[in-house]
Amino acid sequence: MPASCPAAPLVPGSPFFHYADGHLMAEGLALADLARQHGTPLFVYSQAALLDALAAYQRGLAGRDTLICYAMKANSTLGLLQTLVQAGCGLDIVSGGELVRALRSGVDPGHIVFSGVGKSRLEMRQALQAGIGCFNVESLAELEVLNHEALALGRQAPVSLRVNPDVDARTHPYISTGLKANKFGIAHEQALAAYRRAAALPGLRVLGIDCHIGSQITDSAPYLDALERVLDLVQALEQEGIALEHIDLGGGLGITYLDETPPAADRLLAQVLQRLDARGCRHRLLLEPGRSLVGNAGVCLTEVLYQKPGAEKNFLIIDAAMNDLPRPALYQAYHAIVPLQLDTDATPVQYEVVGPVCESGDWIGRERTLAVRTGDWLAVCSAGAYCMSMASNYNSRGRAAEVLVAGQSAQLIRQRENPDDSLGLEPPLGF
Ligand SMILES: Cc1ncc(COP(=O)(O)O)c(C=O)c1O
Ligand SMILES: N[C@@H](CCCC[NH3+])C(=O)O
Fold first, then answer.
1. Closest listed ligand to the CA of 137
2. Percent of the chain topping pLDDT 90
3. Cα separation of 365 and 335, whole Å?
4. Which of 62, 280, 313, 372 has the highest Cβ tally under 10 A?
C-alpha cells in the first residue's frame, strides 16, 4: 500500500481481525485472498479469537468445578463445535437436530444440556438414549412428559428446572427471556412446588437449577440480580431437603458490535464466584455462553455488486443479504462494515448498504460512509454468532461457505450450499 493509504477503520471488538498495509487480515492471512479463492458471501472465523474468548471464561472459573456448555444455537458449524469441544466445552442444545450435530462433534454426551420450552417426545427419547447430562425443564407439563418417556425407556432423566427470575436483562425485547411476560422458565413463585413434584416423580433425578435472562447483556447488574434470586431458591430447596448438585447460569453476555462495553467474562465470573462463596455455595457451576464465544470470532465477506445513486439515498448493493445476515432486519442490529483493501482513490460516500433480496427490510447497514468501488470486497463484522445459524434460503438463495483460519492456514469447514442441493436436482441451466 502506498504511504497515502487512508486510516484503517476499526473492527469493533475483534483484535484478531486487523489491518496490515491496508489489507484486512485474520491471523496473518489476507481476507481478500480467501474471498478470491472461495467466492462471496463467505464467513471467515478465527480460531485464535474463538479460543481467546473461551480462555476468558476458563480464567474466570479456574479452580472451580465447572462446565462451559457452548450454546450451539449461536453457530452450530461442525468445525467450530469441534474446536470448542476439544478445548473442553460441553454443549447446550435446543433441538433434535442440534443433538445429532452435537454428537457428531465428539462431545461427551454427559456434557450436553438440553434447553428449550418445546421439546417433543421424540427429542426427549433421542436425548435419553444418547445419555445427555441434563434436561433443562421449562414447565410442569414438560416434567410430566419427560417422566413418562424416561420410565418407558427404563431410565431416569437428569433434570434441572429453568426458573424465570423476573429480572429485566435490558436488551432487545425479542431476546429478553427472564421477565414474567416471556414464555421461558417456571415462575419464581411456582418453582418450589415444581421441585417438590419433580422430586416425587420416579423417572426424574433432580440435579440442578437453571436460569437464563436474555442475550446481548451489556450490564452485569441484571445478571447478578438473577443469580441472587436463584441462590434464594437453592437455599429454600435445601431447607426442604432437596439438595442440588449444580447451578446453571445460562449465557447472555454481550459483545461489542459498535461501542458497547459489556463486562469481560473473567471479571463477571469473579463477581459471581464471590457471591456464591458469600452464601457458602460449593455447587458445580454450569454456563451456556453463545454469542460471547463466537460473535467476534467471525466476519462475513461480501462483494460490492452495484453503486446506485437514488433520489434520496445512495445505495450500495452487496452480494450478502438478509438471508445470510438476518440480524439487522430482525433486530435493527448494527454490524460494522469495513473494506478488505483500503482504496486510496475511491471517494467516501454515505450509503445504505443493502442486499439483493426483494424486501426493503433487506438492509445490512444504514448511513455508512465508505470509500469503495464496484467489485471491491467488504467485511461485515461481528458475524460469528446468530448469522450463519439463522441463515435461510429465502429468494432461493444459496447459503454461504465457511472457512476457519488457524495459524497461517485456512480450512473450508462448510461448502457453499445451493437451495436445490437437498432435492438432488441437476442444475437445469448447466451452471
Ligand atoms: C437457554 C439459553 N442458554 C444460552 C443461550 C445463549 O445465549 P448467548 O448467545 O446470549 O450467550 C440462550 C440464548 O439466548 C438461551 O436461550
Ligand atoms: N438471535 C438473537 C439471539 C437469540 C438468543 C437465543 N435465545 C440475536 O441474533 O441476537
1. 1
2. 85
3. 7
4. 372
pTM of the predicted model as reported, rounded to 2 decimal places: 0.95
Strand 337-339 and strand 246-248: the pairing is: unpaired
**If DSSP codes are grouped into helix, strand and coil, which group holds residue 261?**
coil
Q: Is 185 annotated as a binding residue?
A: no
Active site (annotated) includes residue 381 = no
C-alpha cell at 305: 455488486
- Phi, psi values for residue 140, rounded to 5°: -65, -40
- What integer pLDDT is reported at residue 3 of this predicted model? 46
* 326 CA closest ligand 2 atom index: 9
* Topology annotation, domain 17-46+295-423: Lyase, Ornithine Decarboxylase; Chain A, domain 1 (2.40.37)
What is the rounded CA–CA span in Å between residue 399 and residue 421?
11
**Residue type present at position 18:** H
Alpha-carbon distances of 234 from 105, 123, 228, 290, rounded to whole Å: 33, 29, 10, 25
- pLDDT of res. 2: 47
Second-level CATH architecture of 115-289: Alpha-Beta Barrel (3.20)
For residues 383 and 40, the answer to whether their CB atoms sit within 8 Å is no
Query: What pLDDT does residue 422 have?
Result: 63
User: Taking the domains of the chain in order of start, what are their residue ranges?
Assistant: 17-46+295-423, 115-289
* Atom 9 (ligand 2) nearest CA: 386
ipTM score assigned to the predicted complex: 0.99
State how far the Cα of 37 lies from the Cα of 34, in Å rounded to an integer: 5
At position 411, the amino acid (one-letter code) is Q
Supply the mean pLDDT for the chain: 93
pLDDT digits (tens, 9 = 90+) for 298-342: 999 999 999 999 889 999 999 999 999 999 999 999 999 999 999
Q: How confident is the model at residue 424 (pLDDT cuts 50, 70, 90)?
A: low
Q: What is the grid cell recorded at 1?
A: 500500500
DSSP 394: G
Report the relative pairing of strands 298-309 and 90-93 from DSSP bridges.
Answer: unpaired
pLDDT in the model for residue 1: 46
Beta strands, E only, 23-89? 23-26, 29-30, 42-46, 66-71
- Which helix (H) or strand (E) segment holds residue 196: the answer is helix 191-200
Q: How far apart are CA 264 and CA 284, in angstroms?
A: 21
* Ligand 1 within 6 A of CB of 288: yes
Pocket test for ligand 1, best of 75, 76, 219, 288 (most atoms within 8 A of CB): 288
